[in-house]
Amino acid sequence: MKFVAFERTQQGTGASRRLRRADKVPGIVYGAGTPSLIELDHNALFFALKKEAFHSSILEMELGGKTEKVLLRDHQVHPYKPQVLHIDFQRIDATTRIVKKVPLHFTGEENSPAVKVDKCLVNHVVTELRISCLASALPEFLTVDLSELTKGQSLHVSDVKLPAGIKVVTHGKPNPVLVTVVEPAAEEEIVVAAPAAPAAKGKDKGKKSEKQNKK
Known about the structure:
By secondary structure, this protein is an alpha+beta fold. It has two domains: 2-92, CATH 2.40.240.10; 98-182, RNA Polymerase Alpha Subunit, Chain A, domain 2 (Beta Complex). Helices cover 18% and strands 38% of the residues. The chain has helices spanning 13-21, 42-48, 52-56, 113-116, 201-214, and strands spanning 2-7, 24-30, 36-41, 59-63, 66-77, 84-91, 97-107, 121-124, 128-134, 142-145, 154-156, 167-168, 177-182. The strands form three sheets. A six-stranded mixed barrel has the order 1-3-2-6-5-4. The chain has a four-stranded mixed β-sheet with strand order 10-7-9-12. Strands 8-13-11 form a three-stranded antiparallel β-sheet, with no helix packed on it. Strand 5 and strand 6 form a beta hairpin. Belongs to the bacterial ribosomal protein bL25 family. CTC subfamily. Residues 196-215 are annotated as: Disordered.
């Protein structure tokens, strides 16, 4: 993906506020030399951030007539307004080794024996993985094939086929669970009690006559 950034000469809280009032977003690009202060058009950036590839792939940033390859590293948004407050990028080249979260794309779930035969539900425990690789090998996403899932099965990180040169960073968890199969809940049989039969009219008349005789 490609986007346009502009050089920012002013910095500080007051300058950032003025930029935001002008529908601009202050940002910074660091790595491979001196950090660069930048500003971006808010609306263009706001909609770019809604795209998965903007978060997990190498981006081409046009700045001052030159194009640089960068990665999105961080961004801050307003607590309740649809407004981007600040954004950080990192310059990279083909030899840069990076650690980055990438999304998981699950395929074949509806055709798995667990779903198609046993009517189970598939629970996606994890939807992204942190990986380590060269920037040139960064995948936009990782595909996880669920077509062989069976009843009672769980899928772990070790079950995912990774492209060459990519390693999952698990932070002390050797083989985290990605997917579990949940059996359908048993249907409860509800028994409806039959309504009570109304009292016979003859008996009611007999009771009334007994009361009258007592009187």
